[in-house]
Amino acid sequence: MSFQAQPTLRQVVADASARLGSSDARHEAELLLLHVLDRPRSWLFAHATDPLAANDQAAFEALLARRVAGEPVAYLTGRRGFWTLDLEVDPATLIPRPETELLVELALERLPLDRALQVADLGTGSGAIALAVASERPQAQVLATDASTAALAVAARNATRHELRNVRFAEGGRDWYAPLHGARFDLIASNPPYIASDDPHLQQGDLRFEPATALASGVDGLDDIRAIAEGACAHLQPGGWLLVEHGWDQGAAIRALFDAAGLAEVSTAQDLEQRDRVTLGRRPA
Questions:
Q1: Which of 249, 251, 285, 250 is closest to 262 using CA atoms?
Q2: Given Cys at both, which of 62, 115, 183, 224 links 217, Cβ 3.0 to 4.6 Å?
Q3: Alpha-carbon gap, residue 13 to 15, rounded angstroms
Q4: Which letter does DSSP use for residue 27 in this model?
Q5: Which stretches of the chain are DSSP H helices?
Q6: Distance (Å, rounded) from C-alpha 10 to C-alpha 6?
Q7: For residue 279, what are the β-bridge partners?
Q8: What is the pTM of this model?
Q9: pLDDT of 209
Q10: Within 10 Å of residue 10's Cβ, how many Cβ atoms?
């Protein structure tokens, strides 16, 4: 009788990377394996030659098959890092993406550390923007809103896990400003739906698995941003800021919407790939 040795962790990652075949395949394989083993990434380097137990291999193979079929790694592991936070995510929420950290950076530049401020995050999803701001500005009170009760439950759990007590949550429908109840804020931030409803990218990659209502917004992708821009001045303090994330080719159109809404100092910031990413404007003092 021949004995078949269990593959090492290094072999498992290499084989899985070949099956995934993407530019990020090795990283994804490692994330799935570490999720199964419940270990940090640093542990993997020291244990690369350890054999993988049969039951762990079966669990890993099941996750790998789902990833090969297209399911996002973040949904398979239930986690995604954003800013300095490790966030729970699930199919009720968008997957936080690194480019959204630009919006957080721009918001923090406009929120002094030494003041009690009122901040709103419209369409919070997993809570990524709201919790990042709350963690960096402990004197700020952050209101996080979403139309999805399931997404708000995820965001609330993330706030509890990170012991962020300066965030509260409110549910609202497609009226973006209804949860604000007439209050005024020093800064309003949003990463709203901004993809055109017939964009073929909605049927590709991770987007196939993310909530469609959090992605698409009318024939030109701007329906929700129009509503957010039009209502901003009524919900901002004099001198308060509106910051909105959007698609790479929407900067000029959104600047026009901000101008028409009466916002001043309107500009668009680009991400690390030199693409338009966040447009911002200020309610005149």
A1: 285
A2: 224
A3: 6
A4: H
A5: 9-20, 25-37, 41-46, 54-68, 73-77, 101-109, 128-136, 149-161, 223-235, 251-260
A6: 12
A7: 244, 268
A8: 0.91
A9: 84
A10: 15
Classify 111 as helix, strand or coil: coil
Residue 238's pLDDT is: 97
Tell me the residue type at 176.
W
- Position 232 scores a pLDDT of 97
Contact between 199 and 206 under an 8 Å Cβ cutoff? The reply is no
Q: What is the DSSP letter of 34?
A: H
3-class state of residue 122 by DSSP: strand
What pLDDT, on a 0 to 100 scale, did the predictor assign at position 4? 53
* pLDDT at res. 208: 87
Contact 104, 278 (CB under 8 A): no
CA 241-244-247 angle, 5° bins: 155
The contacts of residue 56 (CB under 8 Å, 6+ apart) are: 36, 37
Residues of the chain with pLDDT under 70: 1-5, 173
Q: Is 130 exposed, middle or buried (0-12, 13-18, 19+ CB in 10 A)?
A: buried
pLDDT tens-digit readout, 264-278: 999 999 999 999 999
Q: 4: how many CB neighbours lie within 10 A of its CB?
A: 5
**Residue 3: what pLDDT?**
46
Non-local (6+) Cβ contacts of 79 within 8 A are: 35, 86, 87, 88, 89
Nearest to 12 by CA among 2, 117, 37: 37
Residues shown for the chain: 285
